[in-house]
Amino acid sequence: MGIITIEELPARLAGGKTLAGLDLGDKTIGVAISDQRFSFAHPRPVIMRRKFSLDAAVLLALLQKENAGAVVIGLPINMDGSEGPRAQKSRAFVRNMAQMSDLPFVLWDERLSTVAAERTLIEMDFSRRKRAGKIDSAAAAFILQGVLDRLQSLHASARTESDPPSAV
Predict the structure, then answer these.
(1) d(CA 99, CA 52)
(2) Is 17 left (phi over 0), alpha (psi -120 to 50) or beta?
(3) Which residues of the chain have pLDDT under 50?
């Protein structure tokens, strides 16, 4: 299917589907899955990267098991708003996945998601060693939670706009 906008997501998530979030690293793919009410992001174990075809097969099996209707991928945009080599790698990953799956993908600005995830794990008193194994899935959960919060905001705005003005 390829890339869609966040506004197109609700139509893709009907029928008990969940939403997946991914944080692409060089060595791992962090994964998080939403609940069916699209309120909370839940981290899942990371996928160790080996070769794209193997990584894609593992990821697609997980997405099917989790009943994902769409996937959010963190897009590592530079602090000045430009896209560098890492953003291009993320876009290439989506292009390659789109050839293997009909799932739609949403690109989400992930600036500082890893920093926020690391701070949270430190606050939870995880050792440096334990943080290393959880950071990518925690970052995926931060990315996904940002999208879930935005979806809730869009839904609330749509309700407000459709309500008739109250009589004074």
Answers:
(1) 12
(2) beta
(3) 131, 166-168
Measured CA to CA, the distance from residue 158 to residue 168 in angstroms comes to: 22
Q: Which long-range contacts (CB under 8 A, 24 or more apart) does 132-138 make?
A: 133/46, 134/43, 134/46, 135/30, 136/23, 136/25, 136/28, 136/29, 136/30, 136/46, 137/23, 137/30, 137/31, 137/32, 137/43, 137/44, 137/45, 137/46, 138/30, 138/43
List, for residues 30-40, the tens digit of each pLDDT value: 999 999 999 99
97: enclosing H helix or E strand: helix 85-98
Report pTM.
Answer: 0.82
22 Cβ contact list (under 8 Å, min separation 6) = 29, 30, 31, 32, 59, 71, 72, 73, 74, 140, 143
